[in-house]
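Course assignment 3, question 2. Fill in each field.
Student: A.L.
Task: Predict the tertiary structure for the chain below.
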Amino acid sequence: MGKRAPSGPLAAFRARFLDVLASIYLYNEHRGYTALDRVLEAVRARCPDDAAFIAAIAKHRADERKHYVMFKRWFETQGKMPLAVDSTCGHIDRFIFKVFGCSIDELDTQGVIASADEFEQLCRVIMLTEQRGMRQVEILLKNPHILSDKVMTRIFRIVEKDEPDHWMPYESWLKANGRVTARWRERWADFWIHKSLMLVKLPALFLNRATPRMASWPDAED
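Answer field:
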């Protein structure tokens, strides 16, 4: 059961916190499932006979889409659009740039398909990102502002249930193929990306009341 919603200044803080958090999650879930289309392309090309791996990534993609729709509906019930956040709020965006030196949109899918090392790197980046996401959801489900909103609590319970399926297939593939599951530089990058988002980007977005809202839903052009 959700906790009783606060009132007064605490209610305003809670509303802003949920608004910012849901906007960031909506962006990341949309970014996730659209980017996974390209991951699926790479996996089908490199591992055409690994039906289980392909199916696991297809499920990952479907889950990300499902999560996006849940956050979208939350905003619809609030009667407002999400805040217009961008790739600076995306963990996977920043991780891909750190590792590959380009944005997700600029990532050379054919190059990843052709290179065993780059494909391995991509699997590790996704695995580490999803592991980070799982730990973050566990923290959020202890947050009183989340727990005071029954719908938001239910959304994060669903996300929590789905999360293990989002990193375990990549770890299993890496282990099965004798690949490194994580390099220390990648773990270090993941750590600092997370800290910069939590300690700098999220508070800045929370305080910036001039941040505009989206004019249309991200999936309008999918």
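Instructor remarks: The mean pLDDT is 93. Residues 33-208 form one domain.
Grade: pending
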